[in-house]
Amino acid sequence: MTTMRIEQPSQRLTELTDAIRDRVRQGTSQAHTAELVQEALRPFLGVPGLLTEQQRRGDPERYLQHVLHVEPDASFSVVALVWLPGQQTPIHDHVAWCVTGVYQGAESEQHYRLCDSEEGAYLVPGRLVTNHEGETCGFAPPGDIHLVRNCGTGTAISLHVYGADIGELGTSVRRIYELPVHE
């Protein structure tokens, strides 16, 4: 993943961050905060003018992360991920709650469960979800092990809201899982 830094926000992006801020400041559990942020994000998916042309461009080598906003108190960050066909993340989990909304295209998300045996740890695939433009999903650790990929034939763009300072951390990934996958 390559990270691009924050540009001057559009009016629409300012409206989105204001709506997210209102939800995050309610001070609920991580899981409930993720639900509230999903509600705030939905009306902005696919809306013209939210992202600049630069923030909509992909990279042929890897998916690209554009940091759109980092809240001054580090309570949340908003990023746009741009995926060309077939690009994907490694299997990973997160440092905090996360909400994703598909702005353009479609993404699939393969969930995994971590298991232990006498031979060592391994992953078992769980549900596979495909989200299309306008659809959201959210979660809070633990139980957030997954792989995300562009499952379409064109560019996919998703907006991710993390309950962490991505400007400081550089990523929301807590751990990458390089374990065997057992059906």
From TrEMBL:
Cross-link 3'-(S-cysteinyl)-tyrosine (Cys-Tyr) placement: C98-Y162
Gene3D superfamilies xref list: Jelly Rolls
Keyword Metal-binding attributed: yes
InterPro entries for this protein: CDO_1 (IPR010300), RmlC-like_jellyroll (IPR014710), RmlC_Cupin_sf (IPR011051)
Binding site for Fe cation: H92, H94, H146
Presence of the UniProt keyword Oxidoreductase in the record: yes
Superkingdom of the source species: Bacteria
This protein's UniProt keywords: Dioxygenase, Iron, Metal-binding, Oxidoreductase, Thioether bond
Alphabetized GO MF terms: ferrous iron binding; oxidoreductase activity, acting on single donors with incorporation of molecular oxygen, incorporation of two atoms of oxygen
Family from the record: Belongs to the cysteine dioxygenase family.
Name the UniProt record assigns to this protein: Predicted metal-dependent enzyme of the double-stranded beta helix superfamily
Organism (species): Actinopolyspora xinjiangensis
Lineage: Bacteria, Bacillati, Actinomycetota, Actinomycetes, Actinopolysporales
